[in-house]
């Protein structure tokens, strides 16, 4: 695939995102903005830190205090968007990300506590994918890497890619929660922090795949039938790597994924060699029309490629795990779909 073509697609997504509004959560089994706030408050009040994970943080912890905690060493800046213009809120409970809805504050707390505890216990939770020399030659590569949510030793792996309109990486809603839940089911899950931009993001994902293959023994992962996950822009990354493979983006001729898991993107292009694909989207998504996703999945199915598609009434863009909505439980279905391809 040509660099220009991918750059053009990425630019069009960004223009669409900056010009569209997802609106409030309404009807169809979802919640209004006010109801969502009440639900978050009630849920937070009904659980304590022992329920969501052991660690020093709670919904009242300042985001700056998480970022400055020395246990996170040299990668603390990558936990949240590098450009703070894409998120708001002073505390973990108040975190909001541009273009995202249904952010669960308790899940945010669980993520940072999980990473903190594992790092505190001496476990490596972050890996650089580029060498010091490569980062010196291209300083933008400084802000890349893989967070690792370890599952069972020797199990297969998934790479989760957040969206953000190829303008930023919305990992705390769109890839960290997914990786944590995948790891709870025994699989090894990585979160890629990439350089925004359609071409550079795909190059970073290709490098991440190469890194995991090269360090599979050290990481204790099975590289057969790995899966790529993504939401919005991240879904396009997963789909493009599934369609064309790492070699199309400057890396070795490594196997393509055994399954692609996509959320809320309006991608229409595909190839006859695409991997089995699972997709889900909200019917009230003002950015990614659910019928565009449906047509793509139907086209893959017509080629004999295994697919599974879900669309949820009333849900807007960027619902993440969909906790408390009509989409709740979709991740379990996606893991089951991936298992069927193994």
List the helices and strands and how they pair.
Layout: H1 3-19, H2 33-46, H3 49-52, H4 63-67, E1 87-88, E2 96-97, H5 105-120, E3 126-127, H6 132-137, E4 145-149, E5 156-161, H7 171-174, H8 176-184, E6 188-193, H9 198-214, H10 216-219, E7 222-231, H11 233-244, E8 259-263, E9 277-282, H12 290-302, E10 307-312, H13 330-340
Parallel strand pairs: 5-6, 5-7, 7-8, 8-9, 9-10
Antiparallel strand pairs: 1-2, 3-4, 4-6
How many helical elements?
A: 13
Strand order of the largest sheet: 3-4-6-5-7-8-9-10
Strand content: 5-15%
Shape: globular
- The helicity comes to 25-40%
Structural class, please?
Answer: alpha/beta
Amino-to-carboxy terminus distance: 28 Å
Give me the count of strands.
10
The major pleated sheet works out as: 8 strands, mixed
Task: Calculate Rg over CA atoms.
Answer: 19 Å
* Subunit organisation of the chains: single chain
* Order of H and E elements: HHHHEEHEHEEHHEHHEHEEHEH
Low-pLDDT stretches are: 1-51
Indicate the mean pLDDT. 88
Search tags:
342 residues; 10 strands; alpha/beta; two-stranded antiparallel sheet; disordered N terminus; 8-stranded mixed sheet
């Amino acid at each position: 695939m040509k660099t220009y073509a991918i750059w053009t697609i990425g630019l069009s997504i960004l223009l669409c995102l900056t010009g569209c509004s997802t609106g409030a959560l309404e009807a169809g089994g979802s919640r209004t903005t006010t109801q969502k706030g009440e639900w978050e408050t009630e849920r937070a009040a009904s659980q304590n830190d022992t329920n969501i994970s052991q660690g020093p943080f709670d919904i009242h912890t300042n985001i700056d205090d998480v970022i400055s905690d020395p246990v996170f060493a040299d990668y603390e800046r990558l936990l949240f968007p590098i450009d703070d213009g894409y998120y708001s809120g002073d505390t973990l409970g108040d975190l909001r990300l541009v273009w995202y809805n249904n952010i669960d504050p308790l899940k945010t707390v669980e993520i940072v506590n999980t990473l903190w505890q594992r790092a505190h216990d001496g476990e490596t939770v972050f890996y650089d994918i580029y060498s010091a020399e490569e980062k010196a030659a291209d300083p933008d590569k400084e802000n890349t890497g893989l967070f690792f949510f370890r599952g069972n030793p020797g199990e297969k792996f998934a790479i989760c890619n957040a969206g953000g309109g190829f303008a930023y990486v919305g990992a705390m809603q769109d890839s960290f929660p997914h990786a944590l839940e995948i790891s709870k089911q025994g699989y090894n899950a990585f979160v890629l922090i990439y350089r925004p931009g359609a071409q550079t993001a795909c190059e970073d994902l290709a490098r991440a795949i190469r890194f995991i293959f090269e360090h599979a023994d050290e990481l204790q992962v099975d590289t057969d039938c790995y899966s790529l996950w993504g939401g919005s822009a991240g879904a396009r990354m997963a789909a493009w790597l599934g369609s064309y493979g790492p070699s199309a983006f400057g890396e070795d001729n490594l196997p393509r994924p055994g399954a692609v898991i996509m959320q809320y993107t309006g991608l229409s292009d595909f190839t006859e060699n695409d991997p089995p694909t699972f997709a889900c989207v909200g019917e009230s998504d003002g950015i990614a029309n659910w019928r565009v996703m449906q047509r793509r999945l139907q086209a893959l199915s017509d080629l004999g490629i295994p697919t599974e598609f879900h669309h949820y009434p009333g849900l807007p863009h960027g619902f993440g795990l969909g906790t408390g909505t009509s989409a709740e439980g979709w991740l379990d279905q996606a893991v089951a779909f991936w298992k069927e391809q193994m």
